[in-house]
Write a structure and sequence with these properties.
Length: about 475
Amino acid sequence: MLKIIFLLLMSGGIPVAIAMAGSSLIYIWTTGNLPSFVVIHRMVSGIDSFPLLAVPFFILAGNLMNNAGITNRIYNYALALVGWMKGGLGHVNVVGSVVFAGMSGTAIADAAGLGTIEIKAMTEHGYSKEFAVGVTAASATLGPIIPPSLPFVIYGMMANVSVGALFLAGILPGLLMALMMMLTVAYFAHKNGWGADVKFEWPRVIKALAETLVVAGWPLILWLLIVKAGFPAQITVFAGLIVLFAADKFFKFQAVLPIMTPVLLIGGMTTGIFTPTEGAIAACLWAMVLGFAWYRTLNWKMFVKVSLDTVETTATVLFIVAAASIFGWMLTATGVTAAISEWVLGFTKEPWVFLLLANLLMLFVGCFLEPTAAITILVPILMPIVQQLGIDPVHFGLVMVLNLMIGLLHPPMGMVLFVLARVAKLSVERTTMAILPWLVPLLGSLAIITYFPKLVLWLPKMFY
């Protein structure tokens, strides 16, 4: 009965959060087994969680980076690094999204922020608007895969899984996805006879490579000094930051400091300096230092606007989580999750078959529900089966999030689809057709990530 009420409310066009809370309340009223205040109690307790404090701070950090002129720096860095290749701006689009993913944590922020610059630049250089939209949509899915990631925080809280382990698990799959997309760009460039978009110049390329080496080498040097040489951690990190800022000032780097956001975040969590929640606060402080003090592209008027946008987005996300808490509890209490588990395990006990069916389900659900709502509904249903089949919950979390990100590219509810249709001024139908070829690298990446869990779990097992 609970499921029927929920589906009726959803089919009537009622928002998913209200449908979840409303169906639970109606079910309690009709059965009379529980007092009505249980709904409020479960909703409040559902968001009374320390890990969920990371949600508003990650949203704020992404908004600050997006409004501090960081996107232009990322674009220029990617242009210098790979713009000289055939189909250059397509590669720039992918590399830029990899970098921006380390700050935004959401696909929609990537599509709306960096995507606006990339689509404009690609159309001005003679690329078709459809190709520009397609590669931008595909690369936007990297946002929640490469840490930090808002969906990983929600999944970690719902499934009782380490958020730090989830962040580490997303690094190698994110790079795999980027490689698959760049191969697709190379295919289209070869097929259409596209050349480079900027002239190959050694000084530009060497400077971009130097920035990449600084980002990769800085944490390695600190690790050697702290772990191997025994230097005090706090003093060493502080001195390392001073050297980093001095190098940025002297060499006039484009994007070293913004790219350092995920490095500082992951490094702080794996070394135990701070928890994921405290890491979200650190990311906000880092964004404010860059925006207010270093680049001086933020002012207090912009900060107030960014804060209000963050409050609005946070309220929406947490209301969905609160509504899903009572709905998930009711599904468990009424035996729905147990019945689904028994049915699935009666059908198959092979993990690979379950993963195939789960992928199909999550791809379908992702077309109709936004990721936060889908995660909060699916985790209580699927997690008991995952545990019984011995599938690692960290691995399954990455599979779930990637499925739901692909769902964002499709009608009828794909938010990235609608954002890019508005940015590019294309119809939804033309935008959908532009995205279709890019499902090949995305679904290929999904298949590899689903059936080669070692790729996902190698880094988490090293540190956790």
